[in-house]
Amino acid sequence: xxxxxxxxxxxxxxxxxxxxxxxxxxxxxxxxxxxxxxxxxxxxxxxxxxxxxxxxxxxxxxxxxxxxxxxxxxxxxxxxxxxxxxxxxxxxxxxxxxxxxxxxxxxxxxxxxxxxxxxxxxxxxxxxxxxxxxxxxxxxxxxxxxxxxxxxxxxxxxxxxxxxxxxxxxxxxxxxxxxxxxxxxxxxxxxxxxxxxxxxxxxxxxxxxxxxxxxxxxxxxxxxxxxxxxxxxxxxxxxxxxxxxxxxxxxxxx
Length: 254
Known about the structure:
Layout: E1 15-19, H1 28-43, E2 47-51, H2 59-70, E3 78-82, E4 86-87, H3 92-102, E5 107-111, E6 123-127, E7 132-135, E8 144-147, E9 149-150, E10 154-158, H4 159-166, H5 189-197, E11 204-211, E12 213-215, E13 220-221, H6 223-232, H7 234-241
Parallel strand pairs: 1-2, 1-3, 5-11
Antiparallel strand pairs: 3-10, 4-12, 5-10, 6-7, 6-9, 8-11, 12-13
Helix pairs in contact: 1-3
């Protein structure tokens, strides 16, 4: 957590709404990790205003409920989104929000990886040629960079961003911030949010220094699993992902 002055409570003046959507049984170790990280964030000055976590509600509908609710909390700085299968470190929340505050960022994600396949990182760049989000094969360590999409496993969104999307001319009030079109060949609810956010004047970012585990069967998936898989199947991944080279990391396709 280099570059952050922890002694002077860097999160003082910020308040957060918690959103941990759950769709079934939750691993106790994941719950404990969140509690510890919340307490540490409070120690560094963060105020928790509300818990808006939806339980056993459809993906898009549940997240829309949370986004709508923060508009009724003008004192709330933003929403801390955490999926119930995330394995987080004690400093994960504090670092994510401190990174956002220090850089005046309205949207920041940490890094977690898919639980299957090549264990690819769950953040993306937009390919205008393919008209689709593409995963990154390489990314710099311990860095703050722009991205164009990500999953919502561990994300900070400001109240301002929620508002900016809602007042954009293309916003559909009935479909909300998180329309889920995956069954009809469109985006899932998380990527739909990112697509709508990209239409505003706000940039999405990732802090690659925040590495999270992804609870899976039969084990937790970490960055090391992705790197090992790349080493084993380098050529296959190169063909399959068709992602940008490291030299163009974080640069939008024109």
